[in-house]
Amino acid sequence: MIDLQIEALSKSFGDLVLFSDISFTIEERQRIGLIARNGRGKSTLLKIIAGEEPADEGKITLRSGVSVGYLEQEPDFEPQLTVLEACLGRSSEKTTLIARYEKALAEGDEKQLHHLMEEMDRLEAWDYETRAKQVLQMLKITNFAQPVGQLSGGQKKRVALASVLIEQPDIMILDEPTNHLDTEMVEWLEDFLSRFTGSLLMVTHDRYFLDRVCNEIIEIDDRRIYRYKGNYSYFLQRRDERLQTQAAETARARNLLRTELDWMRRQPQARAHKAKYRIDAFYKLKEKAAAMRDDPNVSLEIKSQYIGSKIFVMKALEKAFDDKIITRDFYYTFARYEKLGIVGNNGTGKSTFIKMLLGRVAPDSGTIEVGETVKWGYYSQEGLQFNEQMKVIDVVKAIAEVIPVGNKMLTASQFLQHFLFSPEKQYSYVYKLSGGEKRRLYLCTVLISNPNFLVLDEPTNDLDIDTLQILEEYLREFKGCVIVVSHDRYFMDRVVDHIFVFNGGGDIKDFPGNYTDYRDWRDEERAAAAKAEAERAAKSAAPKVSRRDDAGKRKLTFKEQREYEALEGEIAALEEEKSQIEQDMCSGTLDSATLLKKSQRIASLLEIIDEKTMRWLELSEFV
Fold first, then answer.
1. By three-state DSSP, how is residue 57 classified?
2. Is residue 340 domain-shared with residue 412, that is, in the same domain?
3. Strand 216-221 relative to strand 224-228: parallel, antiparallel, unpaired?
4. Are residues 391 and 510 in the same domain?
5. What digits encode the pLDDT tens for the residues 45-60?
């Protein structure tokens, strides 16, 4: 069943055409990832579909009774609202009642409370409020009475995300939902959306997230859309095939053009006697042959300055803010060409750690010795500051007119083209750039200074996937040192060779491997801890009916033994069924009805597997 239909949609800003005459549908339980380069209209398309911005042409039809929840890229709230009021701010009888109840509770108005509690019972609003608080807590927002005006931009984004999630609309439209989330929150959201029973349309640069949540990819390219009935891995395969086909067609068109060009160049009087259709075909052929793709297939072999053997040494480093400990007696010696990733929950001190290294924040005690040859290149979330009235090319020229690349020199314009700024875009004003394009320009200004030690604090936020691929390749080949703070697991896996895990309270673990290696190890540790806890709980619990051996140890009853043996096979069969369904959903061969049925089945499978696994663990203690 179609929930939403987009027909012949077009949108332009002046001479810039974002997309033209595009059409597609969103069906029940479809999970669509929207992909395009920065500045190609992803966020604009979401705003149009959500009714926040008009289209130039086209029609959007929403099926009767279908509700839509929209998470914008940079949400805004009234600053005097509390966190809970903002989260429940979507107008409905239930949310209005909860807001009145919370206000009466805060003011101690017992007369009002008695009446409002009866109304809460009538509308069954208790679960709604509880769910809101649970989602906010999972997103690390715990002070529900705090005014929104006191929150950071990232915290406001999380409040807005919570508001959409608890609403549980039929269609969720999410613009960069993983921005400002740490890896733990991203994995929680990934699981939440995997169980979500509605439809989903989202923009995100998190490729693992796309791969595990989406069952369809829509790409905006050359003002048109291309649909891929599968997840991100399937999209990569089919997109490569499409581009190869286009390249072959362009090559054929150029060969034909040579023949037609010879014909068209004959004396003008002869041309008048030729068929008009052939003249028209020539101009169409010329347009097709001129098609040039600016795909990011260049290698950014930027020559870095020499870096000596001494990089930096930290000795007995201590740092705290009141009772919040960042580092405690920390020692580390950084090696030449090391590529370090830093992960951890928000608020554990990752950015402070970097700022201490760069000399921007002083430690409470201890020393940091930095080698004399180290030249920093620092990309930070706060560093994005431009004169909006400057042209893009002038921003780069103000730093360097020419840039050494390998054994040659590039002009500022050539360097910008490496970062997907076309000649036309280079002469645009900064204020005309999208948020992602400004991030890309900022990254360009960091790299152009020719550093030998790059420190990148959340470089993946708001960058498109094409830019991330260029940056990944650059960092892999970079002849210098790198520290990356990022929640983008795919990016970390491709770039770093080991990670620091900030657990909070000054606990920093140095793990030898990438993020996926660490996550697998962490999951094994958690499973072992859960099993140990289950063992302790089983030993302390007094069974109602049990058998005991000669030593008095509890043994399984005959019925329990049969159940235990059956569970092993049942769990294995369920896991195999789940794996097969996931493969089928990513194959791109299923129709909408089958996709819906399989999505519902996989949601129930996850619950059944969890339940049977816990029962198996309980029984395994007495085998």
1. strand
2. yes
3. antiparallel
4. yes
5. 999 999 999 999 999 9
